[in-house]
Amino acid sequence: MNERKIEMAGEHADEGPPRAEDPEAPGTSDFASADSQEDEERDSGLSPAMQIRDRIIGVLKTIYDPEIPVDIYELGLIYGVEVTDDGEAHITMTLTTPMCPVAETLPPEVEDKVRNVLGVTDVSLDLVWDPPWSVDMLSDAARLELNLM
């Protein structure tokens, strides 16, 4: 068989084809993305506290119960997200059961990730058992993911 060899000429010949830049790649400036995020939010008309709340919810949607392929927000484990004008965040959450295997690790993970949200100055978290969690608390997105619709 004849093998075709394509040679590239020019100053970028050794670099290969152009690739999309990965904003999560090491060395990418977080300042630029934070600035553009702040600009977008300023133009959104939401109060600073509501903007922070939206960012917190976005972060909560990245945290998963290891036994269920749905994030904790869509799973209905987050009962409340309140943010003061000073950036103090208060999270009210539950777990699927009091004996949940992640009872020791999930609340601290939530607290740590929320603490790192742009604009958050302090975090408090209440783990509650009333009302008890049930499948009725699943969002429609979670129901679809779990084939319950």
What does this protein look like?
There is one protein chain. The longest helix is centred in the first third of the chain and has 15 residues, at 30-44. It is globular and about 40 Å long. The chain has 149 residues and is of the alpha+beta class. It has helices at residues 30-44, 48-60, 106-115, 140-145; strands spanning 78-83, 88-93, 122-127. The chain has a domain at 47-143: GMP Synthetase, Chain A, domain 3. The model is unreliable at 1-33 (pLDDT under 50). Helix content is 30%, strand content 12%.
Uncertain segments are 1-33
Helices, by number, come to 4
Overall, the morphology is: globular
Largest sheet: 3 strands, mixed
CATH superfamily of the domain at 47-143: Fe-S cluster assembly (FSCA)
Q: Classify the secondary structure makeup into a structural class.
A: alpha+beta
Name the helicity range. Answer: 25-40%
